[in-house]
Write a structure and sequence with these properties.
By secondary structure, this protein is mainly alpha-helical. It has three domains: 132 residues, no CATH class; 148 residues, no CATH class; 160 residues, no CATH class. It contains 15 helices and no strands. It is a multi-pass membrane protein. This is AI-2E family transporter. Belongs to the autoinducer-2 exporter (AI-2E) (TC 2.A.86) family.
């Protein structure tokens, strides 16, 4: 028997069982079942006139509309024959089977009528399906045309994705920064939630603390910078006269007429209209940069707030995409990576803050100008991996050298001693819970991150390298050992 024949018999048996269920449990009569399947009931056949065949009597299945609609050969599944009276009970078009002996014959079903031009004759279940001819062979997927066409579509799709990612570079950068700050602040939120504080209140407290820190930094940095800038603008002419009165400058000017050449060049530039256009354009560009920076900062703060508030839901939604068989291990690895990334960020901020605090004390003791501003600069530069502390020490030493050379010597000695204490006492205690990143990996990650995203990339490269190193140790190495 063919597969289609078996399927047809299975469908008929199913419909027969459904008819019996409707008649026994739902109270439907046979005419209602015929009407539900679109088959006409026999004239004069009603519930009162129909003979009672008893519960054990077999019920004839309804006509199979699927078999009637599809022009497929089901002769192997259908059997034709005649009962004891010589009446044919196996016609395929009627979709019926031979009636067992002693059972009343079902109502006669009319054979499908010939196709006509009347509307609705071609609908499924209302008449025979129109024959449109035999189907052709499937398209050859191994043909060069098919492979080339699909490959070209794939290349165009990849190019469109690359272009879209390139245009969304700024948005992606803001998202990465926000997610990194979320992972850095999430340990503080988790610490508050473990002390019976609701997550919403914990996020609010942590976020207000971050805003307070930035406000304090602005209050420390902005007023001295504004004051010194105003003093510089006021004293600039006097400082220029003092510079010209210097004997060394006068000697150089007497030999090369340096002052005269500078004055001629300045007058020439002032007379040229392009100078003012360039100055005006530079001011506009500076305004655009400042406005863009303020907007990006606000965007990062808002995204960080949303990510902190909905981080559990975001993680659960991401974990739901992982197959159930691999979900427990994936969840444990992801949680460990996020924990180590957040711990690394908090530890780096703590180390930079300690460096800035002690540097401010040292500069205040020796009487160095702009101690608070230089301390903030040392703290921010300390966030840069590998070279941040050295850059901060260099900036302070240069400022101290122009103030007084003895102060510069004291600054250099202090930072050399402090760097040793930080490397062997402060850093190991703070970073003991984070993953230890080898020096070579740190250098390569910092260089790669700096080449991709500048200072921001260098800041983000080390924690992401720590997460990648954890995956290497816990996933790749054990898998290679098993093979």
């Amino acid at each position: 028997m063919s597969i289609w024949g078996r399927w047809t018999r299975y469908r008929r048996a199913q419909r027969a069982r459904m008819d019996e269920f409707r008649a026994r449990d739902l109270g439907f009569d046979e005419n209602a079942s015929h009407a539900a399947y679109g088959a006409p009931a026999a004239p004069g056949d009603s519930q009162d006139a129909r003979p009672d065949t008893g519960p054990s009597a077999a019920r004839s299945p309804e006509p199979d509309l699927l078999a009637d609609a599809l022009p497929l050969d089901t002769t192997e599944a259908d059997t034709t024959g005649a009962d004891s009276t010589g009446v044919d009970t196996g016609t395929r078009g009627a979709g019926t089977e031979p009636t067992p002996p002693g059972v009343a014959a079902p109502p006669a079903l009319s054979a499908p009528s010939a196709p006509s031009d009347a509307p609705g004759d071609g609908k499924r279940g209302k008449g025979p399906r129109k024959d449109f001819g035999q189907s052709g062979t499937p398209f050859n997927r191994q043909s060069p045309f098919y492979i080339g066409f699909v490959g070209a579509i794939g290349v165009l799709t990849a190019y469109a994705v690359v272009q879209a990612v390139g245009r969304l570079g700024t948005v992606i950068t803001l998202l990465v920064i926000s997610f990194f700050l979320t992972l850095a602040l999430n340990p503080l939120v988790e610490a508050l939630t473990r002390r019976s504080v609701r997550r919403g209140w914990a996020v609010t407290i942590v976020f207000l603390g971050v805003l307070a820190v930035f406000t304090l930094v602005g209050w420390v940095v902005i007023p001295p910078v504004a004051q010194q800038g105003s003093e510089l603008a006021t004293n600039a002419p006097r400082m220029f006269d003092n510079l010209l009165a210097n004997p060394w400058v006068q000697d150089v000017d007497h030999r090369y007429q340096l002052v005269q050449r500078i004055q001629e060049e300045v007058n020439k530039r002032v007379a040229d209209g392009n100078l003012w256009a360039g100055v005006f354009g530079g001011v506009l560009d500076a305004g655009k940069v400042i406005a863009s920076g303020v907007f990006s900062g606000l965007t990062v703060l808002v995204l960080t707030l949303y990510f902190l508030a909905s981080l559990p839901a975001v993680k659960q939604a991401a974990y739901a995409l992982v197959p159930a068989s691999r979900r427990p291990r994936t969840v444990s690895l992801a949680e460990e990576v996020m924990r180590r990334v957040g711990s690394y960020a908090i530890g780096q901020v703590a180390v930079a803050a300690i460096n800035a605090f002690f540097a401010w004390i040292m500069m205040s003791l020796i009487g160095l100008k702009f101690a608070a501003v230089l301390a903030v600069a040392v703290g921010f530069l300390g966030l840069v991996p590998m070279i941040g502390a050295t850059l901060g020490a260099s900036v302070v030493a240069i400022v101290a050298f122009f103030d007084e050379p003895k102060k510069a010597l004291i600054v250099i000695i202090y930072f050399i001693v402090y760097q040793q204490i930080e490397n062997y006492a402060v850093m190991p205690r703070i970073m003991q819970r984070t993953v230890a990143v080898p020096g070579a990996v740190t250098v390569v990650a910092a260089l790669a991150g700096g080449a991709l995203l500048g200072i921001l990339g260098a800041l983000l490269a080390i924690p992401f390298a720590a997460g990648a190193l954890l995956l290497y140790e816990e996933v790749l190495v054990p898998r290679q050992r098993r093979h």
